[in-house]
Amino acid sequence: MKSATMGDLVHRLYEYRKGVRQLFMMTMTAQEATEVATRLRTESIEHHAQPVSPKKVNVFFGRKACVQLVRHMVTKPLCRLTPEEDFILGTLLGYDREQQCLRFLSMTKAGRGMAGGQAARA
Question: What would the pLDDT profile of 2-39 be if each residue is shown by its tens digit?
């Protein structure tokens, strides 16, 4: 029987092939991540696994340049990304641009550190 994660992957691969989005992220168990990575390698799709906890893994996959950027930028837990990094990742993952702008403004107003070390002042 096919797991829910593998079923979700099949749907995301369909979206990838159709050009709906260029970067995807799925959170799953380490065992599922191994199965997903095998499938992505079989289909020659660039991917990167980032451990979240001892039991969970984020798997990013999609266009090579997008995954390379994730490898370079996402080197810490997602909750510790700067507002700029969060904005870039959210936009690449296909999230609504206006909502990403509002999220960025909210994060900077709340004082969440920016790349330069200072949050924007409202």
Answer: 789 999 999 999 999 999 999 999 999 999 999 999 99
Q: Is the pTM of this model over 0.85?
A: yes
The residue among 58, 70, 67, 71 whose CA lies nearest residue 28 is 58
Q: How many beta carbons lie within 10 A of that of residue 14, not counting itself? A: 10
Q: Based on C-alpha coordinates, what's the Rg of the chain? A: 16
Digit-coded pLDDT (tens) for 31-77: 999 999 999 999 999 999 999 999 999 999 999 999 999 999 999 99
Query: For residue 39, what are the contacts with CB-CB under 8 A and spacing of at least 6?
Result: 6, 9
H or E segment to which residue 68 belongs: helix 64-73
Q: How far is CA 65 from CA 4, 19, 60, 107, in A?
A: 28, 15, 12, 26
> What is the rounded CA–CA span in Å between residue 122 and residue 105?
9
| CA 82, chain centre distance (Å) | 14
